Amino acid sequence: MHCPFCRHTDSRVVDSRTSDDGLAIRRRRQCPECGRRFSTTETASLSVVKRSGVAEPFSRDKIVAGVRKACQGRPVTDGDLAQLAQRVEENLRATGASQLEANDIGLAILPELRQLDEVAYLRFASVYQAFENLDDFEAAITQLRAEDAERASSAE
Ligand SMILES: [Zn+2]
């Protein structure tokens, strides 16, 4: 790590701490040449392998863009979408994997979207899981109802 002040090519880590969301490590460094201190932030890499086999860096923006389509006309704010994308990223990072398949991302989005808006969830699931007819929707809705009922009875 180059010193940003004198461009010395080495530096010493004097302190490391994990950011509040647990996604990055912030290091305090000191230059042995000029003695000045500076901070760096390091994020563990997370990449997504597309169907074509090409890997690209994980992007919260892409999650937001994908989910936003399913949320058209629904009472979902940009803040909701940003929070959803953050939770999806946290859940994916918590698995410890550094490389994911596009499929894993969709699977991680579904439960979060369901909590946000059931209609948007059904729309997203219909595209992602390639629903072909009304029976597929009916099965998904039946499952939602059964899980809602289960949740309601366990909350009593
Ligand atoms: Zn320096």
Automatic annotation (TrEMBL):
Presence of the UniProt keyword Isomerase in the record: no
Transmembrane regions: none
Co-factor requirement: Zn(2+)
Keyword Transport set for record: no
Keywords assigned by UniProt, alphabetized: ATP-binding, DNA-binding, Metal-binding, Nucleotide-binding, Repressor, Transcription, Transcription regulation, Zinc, Zinc-finger
Stored PROSITE patterns: ATP_CONE (PS51161)
Residues in ATP-cone domain copies: 46-136
Zinc finger annotations (unnamed) as residue ranges: 3-34
Coiled-coil residue windows: none
Cofactor binding, note field: Binds 1 zinc ion.
Gene Ontology molecular-function annotations: ATP binding; DNA binding; zinc ion binding
Superkingdom, natural source: Bacteria
Gene Ontology terms describing biological process: negative regulation of DNA-templated transcription
Pfam families on file: ATP-cone, Zn_ribbon_NrdR
NCBIfam families: transcriptional regulator NrdR (TIGR00244)
Role description: Negatively regulates transcription of bacterial ribonucleotide reductase nrd genes and operons by binding to NrdR-boxes.
Family: Belongs to the NrdR family.
Protein name per Swiss-Prot or TrEMBL: Transcriptional repressor NrdR
Species, as recorded: Microcella putealis
